[in-house]
């Protein structure tokens, strides 16, 4: 566990390393301990603790403790595995998922679009649907001639992943594709009033705090979109199982005739 901006561990003596290990494994406790308490716990002299504190870049022991308290206050309250729940989705999300799953189930072709971080989600969704036997394929190149590819096809459902719902290249692609009535669009986005959502016949929306580093580095989570993918897959698995059972029942009826 690295809590200090200190990378030169080889410069620490064996005694100082024992203090280092104790501190990084017990930052909450050490923040309220005295020098002699740390020395007692690590079986070293008080002077060894102070040498360690100075060597890792602190001018004094109080400065060292203040740093640890700040780290604890910043990091400890975060719960990394509880950042998504029902509040991330609208109340009618279950019904919307079933409607979209029905649409996908009846589709002949399912192109799945996404750029940037959403491209990875599109690839995952396409693979999962392909595993279920659907003709699903990812489109991660915003300039891919999808409209031309779908010219001689029918009954297509295009899934479009976009956090903002305002990706210019995707909007241009969808505008071409929706000129034909047999191309239906499903938007999976955090912005239900976006341009892409308005173009689409179906909208599976979620709430997600948009985070950007500088201008073009999108750090927004893809987890809500992945939840939606998993929800669709689960429903479609159930539909496949129902179809298999129906066929088995029909075969049994023929055997008894």
Category by helix and strand content: alpha/beta
Uncertain residue segments: none
Q: Could you give the order of strands across the largest sheet? A: 2-1-3-4-5
Helix residue percentage: 40-55%
Query: Number of DSSP helices?
Result: 11
Q: Per CATH, which architecture of the largest domain? A: 3-Layer(aba) Sandwich
CATH superfamily membership of the largest domain: Glucose-6-phosphate isomerase like protein, domain 1
- Beta percentage is 5-15%
Q: Give me the count of strands.
A: 7
Q: Largest beta sheet, briefly?
A: 5 strands, parallel
| CATH domain topology of the largest domain | Rossmann fold
Order of helices and strands: HHHHHHEHEHEHEHEEEH
- Estimate the global geometry from the Cα principal axes: elongated
| Count of domains | 2
Give Rg in angstroms.
28 Å
Euclidean distance between termini CA atoms: 70 Å
The mean pLDDT is 86
Look at the structure and give the CATH class of the largest domain.
Alpha Beta
Quick structural overview:
It comes from Lactobacillus gallinarum. The chain is of the alpha/beta class and 257 residues long.
């Amino acid at each position: 566990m690295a809590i200090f901006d200190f990378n030169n561990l080889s410069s620490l003596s064996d005694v100082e390393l024992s203090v280092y290990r104790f501190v990084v494994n017990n930052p909450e406790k050490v923040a309220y301990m005295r020098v002699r308490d740390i020395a007692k716990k690590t079986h070293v002299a008080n002077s060894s603790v102070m040498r360690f504190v100075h060597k890792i870049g602190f001018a004094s022991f109080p400065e060292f403790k203040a740093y640890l308290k700040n780290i604890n206050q910043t990091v400890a309250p975060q719960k990394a595995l509880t950042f998504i729940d029902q509040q991330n989705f609208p109340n009618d999300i279950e019904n919307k998922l079933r409607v979209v799953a029905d649409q996908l189930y009846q589709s002949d072709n399912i192109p799945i679009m996404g750029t940037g971080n959403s491209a990875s989600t599109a690839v995952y969704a396409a693979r999962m649907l392909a595993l279920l036997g659907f003709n699903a394929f990812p489109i991660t190149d915003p300039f891919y001639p999808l409209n031309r590819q779908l010219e001689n096809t029918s009954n297509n459902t295009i899934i479009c992943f976009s956090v903002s719902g305002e990706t210019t290249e995707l909007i241009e692609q969808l505008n071409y594709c929706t000129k034909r009535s047999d191309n239906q669009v499903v938007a999976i986005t955090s912005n239900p009033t976006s341009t892409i959502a308005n173009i689409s016949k179906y909208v599976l929306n979620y709430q997600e705090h948009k985070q950007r580093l500088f201008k073009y580095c999108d750090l927004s989570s893809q987890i809500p979109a992945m939840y939606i993918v998993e929800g669709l897959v689960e429903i479609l698995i159930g539909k496949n199982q129902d179809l298999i059972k129906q066929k088995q029942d029909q075969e049994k009826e023929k055997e008894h005739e």
